[in-house]
Amino acid sequence: MRSPERVRNELLVAIVDTLQESATVTQVSSRELWREMLADELGAAVEPFGGDRLRPWLIQIVKVCTAVDDGPACLVRSLEYMEQQSATVAALWPLVDEWEAVDFFDGADLGVLRQVLESLGSAELAAMARRASRSRVQELPDWCRTGWQVFLRLGGENSPKGGLPPSMAFLALAADRLVEEGRMEAAEGLRRFNRGQAQKLGLDGLLAEWQHSDLPQPAPSVVPAYLMIQFEPDRNEAGRFYFTYWRQSDSTGWHPVRGETLHLRRAELPGAVEGLIEESEARWAELRQPVILEFILPWELLNEPVEWWSKDSNHPDPTPLAMDYPVLIRSLERLHRASWHRPWHAKWRQLKERPADSHSHWSRPGEDGSYFFHLERELKEDGHAVCLVLSEPPGDDSGTGRREVLAGLRAGVPAMIWHRSDCSDSGFQGAIGEILQDRGLGSLAESVAKWRNDALALGPGGWDGHVGRHLAILLDDPERKPGPAGPV
């Protein structure tokens, strides 16, 4: 059995070994930028590299991080900003989970559990994690592929009040599974470890209660799950985009799990979304929450009718996304411009807390060349104006629609509505008047969904003539941000 000091030292060395494989860390210019970002994440100074030997400096960096709450995660997040989902980042996250698990178990040698937990079948690991966490962990990150990695991941989860820590509950479930497989000795090893930890932590009663009770199924959550899909233009190669996504299904808090980043041509984006949704539905087969799709779009794609992209496109009758999900769009530019975020938060609070006291602003540009300046000024002065109705759709040029959106983004307006081809259409004007009547901005997304459903009811042969087929809604919640921004 290894001592607690040796367990932590060996884990620290493993983190350093992995960091030495990083191109960011080994190159002078990128290493300094990473160090600065790490200092920002930690909220503490990090000494710059001053010698010719990288390894001792990295050991000191890791020691600084492990002495701070959430420090190891800060270390990997700062590197992830630089490298996205690199092999080094993917290898570091399991080590961070292990550090947090070792910390929770007060330096215990968890390695004695590794071989048995790695032998568990992977088919039901997600379901076991949900049960062990009382449904607080709905989805596992991509690096959790074995029972050992799931156990470590749960080791960093906060224990529910008056409940058994999720990692110990997972061990109890794993032992039950091994008994079903006839592996009595392996099961007893997990139970022996659990009993020892329960005695140390004063949790004997909770462990016994867990092992001898049938846990009731939690009530279905009314908190939606989110699939957030981001397209970021490659500024070095025209017509290509970085496709990134996050899944969020934790009903107790906002903990989006990031997926991989793909580099795709514009024409490939609908197919990639279709594949992602199919894979997400398979992961969420037992999910009892409603699911919302959010597309984080750049200028170039802001008017793309993403809600009418298809599922089951190989079928003679493909399904528009709008049939199965509420679909909202968000602004990539605003997400990345922190200087625009203060008014955004202020107007979102107005919409969220006082919807009946909020109103929309119809953009009606005239001949005055300073119109867009005054539009932004008026939106900023009117703290109750939380929704902007555009006079033209935002194109991929610097025309009226885009300039109206820019004024709204700068002023912090969280909601914008437009017709994807003709905002002067009388049907659109009437629909928006109905949607916005009685100051019903608190249910804006639901009202737009109703019009889309009316269009869907006409079927593919008739929906193009219905205004619901052309309604676009940008609804941007600053409290629901995804993880790290796109490629640096």
Could you walk me through the main structural features you see in this protein, from its secondary elements to its overall organization?
By secondary structure, the chain is an alpha/beta fold. The chain folds into three domains: 1-103; 110-218; 225-475, no CATH class. It is 47% helix and 12% strand. It is built from 20 helices and twelve strands. Strands 1, 2, 3, 4, 5 and 8 form a six-stranded mixed β-sheet that branches. It has a four-stranded mixed β-sheet with strand order 9-10-11-12. The protein has a two-stranded antiparallel ribbon with strand order 6-7. Helix 4 crosses helix 5 (71-83). The two termini are 44 Å apart.
Briefly say what this structure is.
By secondary structure, the protein is of the alpha/beta class. It has 20 helices and 12 strands.
Number of domains: 3
Helix content: 40-55%
Global shape: globular
What structural class do you assign from the helix and strand content? alpha/beta
Overall number of strands: 12
How much strand? Answer: 5-15%
Gyration radius over CA: 26 Å
Task: Identify low-pLDDT runs.
Answer: 484-488
The helix count comes to 20
Distance between the termini: 44 Å
Descriptors:
single chain, alpha/beta, 3 domains, six-stranded mixed β-sheet, 488 residues, four-stranded mixed β-sheet, disordered C terminus, 20 helices
Which helices and strands, and how do they pair?
Blueprint: H1 4-19, H2 23-26, H3 28-42, H4 54-66, H5 71-83, H6 87-104, H7 111-118, H8 125-132, H9 147-155, H10 166-180, H11 184-201, H12 204-211, E1 225-233, E2 240-248, E3 257-258, E4 262-265, H13 269-283, E5 291-297, E6 310-311, E7 319-320, H14 321-324, E8 327-331, H15 332-336, H16 341-353, E9 359-362, H17 371-381, E10 385-389, H18 400-411, E11 415-419, H19 426-436, H20 444-456, E12 471-475
Parallel strand pairs: 1-5, 5-8, 9-10, 10-11
Antiparallel strand pairs: 1-2, 2-3, 2-4, 6-7, 11-12
Helix pairs in contact: 1-4, 1-6, 3-5, 4-5, 5-6, 6-9, 7-9, 8-10, 9-10, 10-11, 11-12, 17-18
